[in-house]
Amino acid sequence: MLSSIRITLLFLITTTLVEARPHRRNPVLAPNLFAALKTNDQAILGAYTVPLSNGTATLPAPSANLKLKALGLGRGTQNYTCATSTSSSTPAPIGAVATLFDASFFLPLVSPLEGQEILNILPGYLVTYALNILSPILPVLGSHFFTGPTTPNFDLTAHGGPGRLVAAKTGDIVAPKGSATNAQGAGAVDWLQVQAAGGMGSEGLSMAYRVYTAGGKAPATCLGQGKTIEVPYAAQYWFFD
Prior knowledge:
- By secondary structure, the protein is α+β, with helices and mostly antiparallel strands.
- Helices cover 16% and strands 31% of the residues.
């Protein structure tokens, strides 16, 4: 059953997003509202545990010496390419681009149990909103992009974050059944573990997880698609060092 603080927080977040929609003539925004709640308190982050299981499979756990350094909510696109626009071609992944929002902004207001439940709900909400609506409202943690189709980058330095990570995939499980889709009905992409690739320039971060994904999954074939496909998605991102 939802507690009053969870109801209040979800109402606050969703109402602010609705008020920010472009069709509103006089949007009522509080741009610094969420930034004012932002926390870098390691004691608060330390009370949270990254979700690793989809119910039937489990990602490798972070080693005991690693600490949670940042907790983000990513909103962007999973990108694919098609050789032809026919059913004989299958979309091939070519990376992703996303803005990472600081997911720790409300954690001081709730218990870890309540905070985790809210975090798990939010990707399904965020995937339905365009970035130009979210960016002025939620505090930005950093950016996510690829250098090559298999090399994910996470840069948290521009907004005072703990570092950057240039990584390689080290764990992969399918998203749980019933995971949120995007507005176009695309299913949820896999949950991942990635670790720093040696000699690639990582600093301050050595491991990340993508969990509680919403949307982002490629269509089954390239039939009727262009050369490139951008599929909106959202997800939780957990960063360790």
